[in-house]
Amino acid sequence: MVRKTALVIGASKGGIGDAIAKEFLRKDCRVFATARSIEKIEHLQQIGIEVLILDVTSSKSIDDAAAEITRQTGGSLDILVNSSGLDVDVNVSRKIFDVNVFGLLETTQRFSSLLIAASGTVVFISSVAGISPWAYHGMYNASKAAVNAIAHTLELELSPFDVKVITVMTGSIRTGYFDNQPPAILPQGSLYMPIKEIVDRHTSGAELPKRTPPDEYAKAVVSNAMSANPSTRLWKGVNSTIVWFIATFFWHGALVLAFAPAAGVSILKSKLTALKKTT
Predict the structure, then answer these.
(1) Cα distance between residue 158 and residue 162, in whole Å
(2) Distance between CA 222 and CA 216 in Å, rounded?
(3) Which of 45, 83, 106, 145 qualifies as a cystine partner to 125, CB 3.0-4.6 A?
(4) CA 68 to CA 54: how far, in whole Å?
(5) Could you confirm whether 140 is annotated as catalytic?
(6) Alpha helices (runs of H) in 158-186, residue ranges in sequence order
(7) 203, 184, 192, 185: which is closest to 267 by C-alpha?
(8) Cα–Cα distance between 114 and 66 in angstroms, integer?
């Protein structure tokens, strides 16, 4: 049997892409893994995964990686996993979309000819945040909503070429995501200063104590991607099933009610009401 080729974009050590690349290797695939610096994926090279530098915000970097993989594979790619995400100190919303949305779209476009040649599969690592009001992460939520829309559209547009598109609606996974984020600091005069401790817990990930191990998550993602009839929308990770259930069977706004207690909005409302009474 010919070995399948898989490319995992965004496989820095300790992240979702890292675990997925290792799982594809365990499934006897030829695996390519990328990151913005070789140092972040050297550990994968040591176990037999082929590594490349790829910065999804650079068209030249994407073109160079695509040319190299085309050369090495003969122009065919069975599985593309878009797992890149924000893991650097950035302060502008545009950068979130450059990485999570535009970079993902450009890499998919650039590798589309290889996927078509193999009647392959594209896997978008998205998030339940794309349909949930995850408090104090508004721009991240918006970027994942855009990913969901792009993936859903490509599922239709790539179907004539026998290319499958899978969207993974990811819940809470035990990765280094929050460790790579700078501490969020409320600006002076913020309306949310009365619940600063709650906001800090959200932005640091402390409100997500239960998280799915990345190896367990990766097994489900890879198994589905390699299936002859994969689920085109896969829900994996802590809280993903709950979000799916509420979004599917309850009224619009039910997710707001579900997320409100942890967000501390009722506490803020009470404090603001009490403040008005004293002034």
Answers:
(1) 7
(2) 10
(3) 83
(4) 11
(5) yes
(6) none
(7) 192
(8) 9
| Separation of alpha carbons 120 and 6, rounded Å | 10
Name the active-site residue from 4, 40, 136, 140: 140
pTM score, whole prediction:
0.89
Over residues 125-142, the mean pLDDT reads 91
Q: Is 177 an active-site residue?
A: no
Q: Which tokens belong to 275?
A: 């403040």
CA torsion through residues 150, 151, 152, 155, sign: positive
Residue with tokens 């309306």: 191
5-277: CATH topology:
Rossmann fold (3.40.50)
Q: Which of 4, 22, 144, 236 is catalytic?
A: 144
Q: Which of 18-22, 75-79, 109-113, 267-271 has the lowest mean pLDDT?
A: 267-271
Bridge partners (DSSP) of residue 73 are none
3-state SS assignment for residue 87 = coil
pLDDT in tens, 113-124: 999 999 999 999
Over pLDDT 70: what percentage of the chain?
A: 91
- How many residues are listed for the chain in this entry? 279
pLDDT tens digits, one per residue of 74-98: 999 999 999 876 544 345 567 788 8
Distance CA 89, CA 166 (A): 29
